[in-house]
Write a structure and sequence with these properties.
single chain, 196 residues, mainly alpha, 2 domains, 84% helix, globular
Length: 196
């Protein structure tokens, strides 16, 4: 048992197999054919990547960043050299895949353009608000937070002044993402509670 749970890749593969078994077996009557199954698969992937992205956003803002000043200097290298680059890889690609799968879900649902343009009230408008917040957040991840973190962590060549300037930029963008995530999560969850 310890060997199985010690292998994250194997655990994820078995988790996917269990989800597919539920989708194709126990919940098969929920799907009206292949098209509906594909649509639901993208919804599932959207939620999966969204949980990864926002979970790491909250880990970084509620745990790692506030804890770093309390860590002795000789121990910070473990975080900055090993943990943070790995976290930021999953963080970036979780954001990217959340946006891609979300756009596919909206396209498959026939409301992508209407949501982005706030053309309908209720559910579609809420989804549109959530989509725009997520797009701003993903932009922050890829074009503000990640470039700044590359300097801060020494992954790219940067002077001490450049590193010092990058830290507040990364923090502001990351905290803006926390702020937006709260409304985004409300918009997305509330839209699912409304009748289409």
């Amino acid at each position: 048992m310890a060997k199985f749970f010690g292998n994250l890749n194997l655990v994820v593969i078995v988790g996917v197999v269990v989800a597919l078994a539920i989708m194709l077996g126990l919940d098969a009557e929920s799907f009206g054919g292949t098209t509906a199954c594909i649509k639901m698969t993208f919804v599932w992937l959207h939620v999966f990547f969204g949980v990864m992205w926002i979970g790491l956003l909250y880990y970084l803002n509620f745990v790692q960043v506030p804890t770093m000043p309390k860590i002795p200097a000789e121990q910070k290298g473990a975080i900055t050299g090993h943990i943070a680059p790995n976290v930021l890889w999953y963080f970036r690609y979780g954001a990217l895949m959340t946006v891609i799968t979300g756009l596919i879900v909206a396209w498959n649902g026939g409301f992508l353009v209407r949501a982005l343009l706030f053309q309908d009230g209720g559910k579609v408008r809420l989804i549109g608000i959530g989509m725009w917040f997520a797009l701003v957040m993903a932009f922050n991840v890829w074009f503000i937070i990640w470039p700044a973190q590359q300097k801060i962590l020494g992954l790219v060549e940067a002077s001490a002044d450049q590193k010092a300037a990058a830290a507040p930029r990364a923090l502001i963008a990351s905290r803006l993402n926390v702020l937006l995530s709260i409304g985004m999560l409300y918009a997305m969850s509330a839209s699912n509670a409304l009748v289409a």
